[in-house]
Known about the structure:
Layout: H1 5-36, H2 39-53, H3 57-64, H4 66-69, H5 77-83, H6 103-114, H7 125-133, H8 142-150, H9 156-196, H10 201-210, H11 212-225, H12 235-241, E1 250-253, E2 257-260, H13 288-305, H14 309-320
Antiparallel strand pairs: 1-2
Helix pairs in contact: 1-9, 1-10, 1-11, 1-12, 1-14, 2-9, 6-9, 7-8, 8-9, 9-13
Amino acid sequence: MSFSFSTAFDVVIGLFFVFLLTSLICSQINDKITAALKMRAKGLEEGLEKFITGDSQLKADLYANPLIKTLEREDGWVTQWLNKIPGVQRLLRSDQKLLGIPKDTFALALFNILIPNPASGLTTVGQLQNAVNGLPNDLPIKAPLLSIVATANNDINAARQNIETWFDVTMKKTTELYQAHMWRMALAIAFAVAVILNVDTVSVGYSLWNDPALRSALSAEAASYAQNTPQKEAALDKLNSLSLPIGWSAVLRPNACLFPNDWFAKPLPGAENPVPQNNPCAPPAVPARAYLFKVTGWLLTALAGAQGAPFWFDLLRKLTGK
C-alpha cells in the first residue's frame, strides 16, 4: 500500500485510542496498588523526613500532634484486610495514614510542638528563635527556620506566613520525588499489562495500516469515545470489544502441546515449516525479527500506558476535533 496521509492519520487515531484504553486499565491497577500499599502516605513521610524533620523526635511529634492526627484517613478495606494477615504488615510501605498536610496546619502544629505552652499565651519571635536554636544541628528544618526568624522583624505573623511559604515550596519537591517513583511504578505496570493482554503496538499498527475497514471503524469508535468522559471500569471491556490483534490464543499440536499463535509473524507448521519429528512439542520456527517486533511493540505500549489517560484523552480529543 502506498503512503497516504489520511491513512496514517487514521492509524495514529486508532493507536492513540488503544493507548488511552491501556492507560485507563493501568490507572485502575495503579490506584489499587497505591491504596493497598499506602504509597501516598509513604511518599509524604519520606519527603518530610528528607526535607524537614529528619529521622528524629520532631517527626514523631509532628505525626502525633492533634492538628495533624485529624487529617488522617481510614485505610481502604483491602489494606485493612492485609493488615490482619500475619507477616504481611511488614510488606506495606507505611504505617501512616496521612496523605497531605495544608501549609497553615503545618505551621500551627510546628509552633505547638516547638513552644507547647507559651508563658504569655501568645508565641513570640523570641520564643520561636530560642526553640529553633535548641533543635539538633542535623535537622533539615533548622537552617531554614533560623533564616525565617532572622528576617521576621519580630513579627510572629510574618514568621508564620514565611514558614507556610517555605513548607509549600518544600512539599513541591516532595511531590516531584513521589511522581518520579510513581512513574517507574507506572512503567512496570504498563509493561505487565502489555504482555499479559498482548497489546502490541507494532502488531496493532500493522493491522490498522493494512485493513481499511478496521481502520475506519476504529477511527469512528475513537471519535465517539472522545465525546464522553472515559470510564476506567469499562476500559478492559472496550479494549476487548475492538477487532484488533490483542490478547492471546494458542494452537493445539500433537501430544497436547500448546503454542502461542499471536506473534507479529504467524508461521504455521507445513511443508516449509515442519514441526521437528524428534520433538513433537517443539514450537514452530519463528523468525528472530518476529520476537524483536513483539518486544518492541510491548515496550511502546508500556511507554504509552505510563503517560496516563489524561494525556491520551486530550490528544484524542484534539485529533478528532471534539
